[in-house]
Design brief:
By secondary structure, the chain is α+β, with helices and mostly antiparallel strands. The protein has three domains: 66 residues, Winged helix-like DNA-binding domain superfamily/Winged helix DNA-binding domain (Arc Repressor Mutant, subunit A, Orthogonal Bundle); 45 residues, no CATH class; 96 residues, Arc Repressor Mutant, subunit A (Orthogonal Bundle), CATH 1.10.10. The protein is built from nine helices and seven strands; from the N terminus they run H-E-H-H-E-E-H-H-H-E-H-H-E-H-E-E. Strands 4, 5, 6 and 7 form a four-stranded antiparallel β-sheet that branches. It has a three-stranded antiparallel β-sheet with strand order 1-3-2. Helix 5 crosses helix 6. The chain is elongated and about 85 Å long. It starts with 10 loop residues before the first helix and ends with a strand.
Length: 228
């Protein structure tokens, strides 16, 4: 005698059958239909899934890049699974452009600095931290961004740039004064930039002095330019 899915299965029984399956692994709609065909109809399965999703007991995973199938799981989807391929493709394209720029004299450091600036300005929603690493563990990255920003803000090659204006650039959002000042002073000590000292820092307010670069010896610098 053939059996068919009972129309009298309770909502709790349907939910339990679905959960027992997808606790083991994420499953697509066709896979669920096939495995639960003897226990419930397609309509019961669909309604059971929707009820579980509304109750936040299961998740409907979006299709992975390049695929069409939605999957259901008791766990939320892992963002890495959706982003890894995109990052791999993006990295390959960036490396190709780096090689092209390197061939015409643009260093990898400069290209990376510009890339970080573009990423930092990207309109990601609810972005609360800068993508520029502000810590001293990556000083060369910060110095590269500084050189890039000076080039961007100077009106002509070797032109004077305001330290205050440089400090306010979006690229340095999240970078504290200690790391910023240290990076500027390293560039000066390495002979890559000129620094211009304020003539009378005592006339400035504490807030105004804080916006300048200080070398810890009473000198405050309000201007900077590239040293060719």
């Amino acid at each position: 005698m053939n059996t068919s899915p009972s129309s009298q299965g309770s909502a709790s029984e349907i939910a339990r059958a679905i959960l027992d399956l997808i606790k083991k692994e994420p499953l697509t709609w066709p896979a669920l239909q096939k495995k639960l065909a003897r226990q419930m109809s397609s309509t019961q399965l669909r309604e059971g899934l929707e009820a579980l999703i509304q109750a936040k007991r299961i998740y409907r995973w979006p299709p992975l890049p390049g695929r069409r199938s939605v999957r259901f799981s008791v766990d939320p989807p892992d963002p890495k699974a959706y982003l890894t391929g995109l990052v791999h493709d993006f990295t390959g394209r960036v490396l190709m452009q780096m090689e092209r720029l390197k061939a015409v004299g643009i260093s990898v450091e400069i290209t990376l600095a510009e890339l970080r600036e573009l990423l930092d300005q990207a309109p990601f929603p609810d972005r609360t931290v800068s993508m520029l690493p502000p810590g001293s563990e990556q000083p060369k990255a910060l110095e590269a961004v500084l050189l890039s920003q000076i080039r961007h803000q100077q009106r002509h090659p070797g032109g004077l740039v305001s330290v205050r204006g440089l400090r306010q650039a979006d690229a340095f959002h999240g970078c504290d004064k200690v790391h910023f000042d240290s990076a500027v002073l390293r560039l000066f000590q390495a002979g890559q930039v000129w620094l211009y000292r304020h003539d009378y820092p005592a006339s400035l307010t504490e807030t105004e002095r804080a916006s300048l670069v200080c070398d810890g010896q009473g000198n405050y610098y309000n201007g900077i330019s590239l040293r060719d």
